C-alpha cells in the first residue's frame, strides 16, 4: 500500500547565532529578529524517514510548518531533499502560540489537505524543546501516537516501529493512521543535490493564512495558549574565584571548609 505521509518541520534559530538572541522584556518572547533559521535537526530525520518509506512503498510526502513568512526559504530546502509539497501556516494571529495552539493549527492544516496515513515529527525542537507537540497532534487527530521512534517498517495497514527506552528498545505494531516522533538514531538525513534544488523551485508551496483554515480563533496564537510564559531570564553565569595560597594540606583544608560552608554534602 502506498503511503500519504505528512511531516511537521519547525524552523529554529541557527545555533551559530545563539549569542545574538534576546528576550523581549515586555512580551517575554524570544526576539528572533535578524536571526537566521535552520530546519530543526530531528525534523530532518523525520523527513528522511518519510522519503525512505515513499521510495520503498510509493506515495507522497507533504511537509507542514507553522512559522513566519521567512520560513519559505527553509521549506524550499526541504523540498530540495525530495519532499513533494509544502504548506506554511503563517499569520500574525498565530504568533505567541504554545504547544497546544501550535498542534491545533497543524491539525487544522492537515484536516484541510488530508487524509494522511502516517504523520511524522521530530521528538523535540532545539528551541522550545518541550516534546509536547507530537502527542498533542495525535490527540487532535484521534490517532495512536508514539515518541522516541528509532525504526519504522510498513506492513499491511500498519507500521512496525522500534521505540528507544532507557534499557534498550521495544518493538510495537501500530495500526495506521498514526503519529510518530522520531529520534536521531533512526537514519542519516540526505543532503539535497543540485537537481533537487532546481526541481524544488517548481514544487507546490502554499501559504495558509488563518482565513484559509477553518479554525476556532480562541484556539490559536497567544489567545489560544493555556501556557503563558512567566518570567524569562538569563541565569547568572558569573563565577566568583579566589586564589588560595599555602602548603598543600592547608589549601586542602581550606577548600573542604569552603565546600562545607556552601552546604554541598561531601561523600
Ligand atoms: C525557550 C522556549 C520555551 C518554551 N516553553 C514552552 C512551554 O513550556 N510550553 C509551551 O506550551 N510552549 C513553550 N514554548 C513555545 C513552543 O516552543 C511553541 O509552541 C512551539 O511552536 C512548539 O513547541 P516546541 O518547540 O517545544 O516543540 P516540540 O514539542 O519540542 O516539537 C516536537 C516536534 O513537533 C513539530 N513542531 C513543533 N513546532 C512546530 C511548528 N511551529 N511547525 C511545525 N512543526 C512543529 C516538529 O516536528 C518538532 O520536532 C517555548 C518556546 C521557547 C522558545
Note down, in words, how this protein is organized.
With 267 residues, the chain is an alpha/beta fold. It has one domain (3-219): HUPs (Rossmann fold, 3-Layer(aba) Sandwich). Helices cover 27% and strands 26% of the residues. It contains 6 helices and 13 strands. The chain has helices spanning 41-57, 71-80, 99-113, 133-141, 194-200, 248-261; strands spanning 3-8, 11-13, 22-23, 30-31, 37-39, 59-66, 85-89, 118-122, 145-155, 158-165, 168-175, 178-182, 205-208. It has a 9-stranded mixed sheet, with helices on both faces. A two-stranded antiparallel sheet has the order 2-5. A hairpin with a 2-residue loop joins strand 9 (145-155) and strand 10 (158-165). Helix 3 crosses helix 4. It is globular and about 75 Å long. The chain starts with a strand and ends in a 6-residue tail after the last helix. Residues 8-10, 30, 40, 42-43, 46, 64-67, 97-99, 102, 106, 121-122, 124-125, 127-134, 227 line the site of flavin-adenine dinucleotide. Flavin-adenine dinucleotide binds at residues 8-10, 30, 40, 42-43, 46, 64-67, 97-99, 102, 106, 121-122, 124-125, 127-134, 227.
Amino acid at each position: 500500500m502506498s503511503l500519504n505521509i505528512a511531516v511537521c518541520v519547525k524552523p529554529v534559530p541557527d545555533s551559530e547565532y545563539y549569542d545574538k538572541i534576546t528576550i523581549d522584556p515586555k512580551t517575554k518572547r524570544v526576539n528572533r529578529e535578524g536571526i537566521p533559521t535552520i530546519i530543526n535537526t530531528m525534523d530532518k530525520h523525520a523527513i528522511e524517514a518519510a522519503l525512505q518509506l515513499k521510495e520503498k512503498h510509493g506515495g507522497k510526502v507533504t511537509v507542514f510548518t507553522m512559522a513566519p513568512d521567512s520560513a519559505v526559504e527553509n521549506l524550499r530546502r526541504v523540498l530540495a531533499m525530495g519532499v513533494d509539497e509544502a504548506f506554511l501556516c503563517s499569520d500574525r494571529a498565530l504568533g505567541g502560540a504554545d504547544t497546544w495552539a501550535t498542534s491545533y493549527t497543524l491539525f487544522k492544516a492537515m484536516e484541510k489537505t488530508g487524509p494522511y496515513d502516517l504523520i511524522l515529527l521530530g521528538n523535540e525542537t532545539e528551541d522550545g524543546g518541550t516534546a509536547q507537540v507530537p502527542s498533542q497532534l495525535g490527540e487532535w487527530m484521534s490517532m495512536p501516537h508514539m515518541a522516541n521512534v528509532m525504526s519504522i517498517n510498513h506492513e499491511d495497514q500498519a507500521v512496525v516501529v522500534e521505540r528507544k527506552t532507557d534499557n534498550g528498545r521495544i518493538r510495537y505494531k501500530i495500526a495506521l493512521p498514526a503519529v510518530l516522533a522520531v529520534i536521531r538514531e533512526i537514519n542519516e538525513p540526505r543532503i539535497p543535490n543540485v537537481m533537487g534544488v532546481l526541481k524544488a523551485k517548481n514544487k507546490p508551496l502554499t501559504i495558509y493564512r488563518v482565513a484559509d483554515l477553518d479554525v476556532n480563533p480562541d484556539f490559536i496564537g497567544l489567545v489560544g495558549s493555556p501556557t503563558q510564559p512567566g518570567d524569562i531570564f538569563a541565569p547568572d553565569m558569573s563565577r566568583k574565584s579566589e586564589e588560595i595560597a599555602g602548603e598543600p594540606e592547608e589549601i586542602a583544608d581550606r577548600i573542604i571548609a569552603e565546600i562545607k560552608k556552601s552546604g554541598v554534602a561531601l561523600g
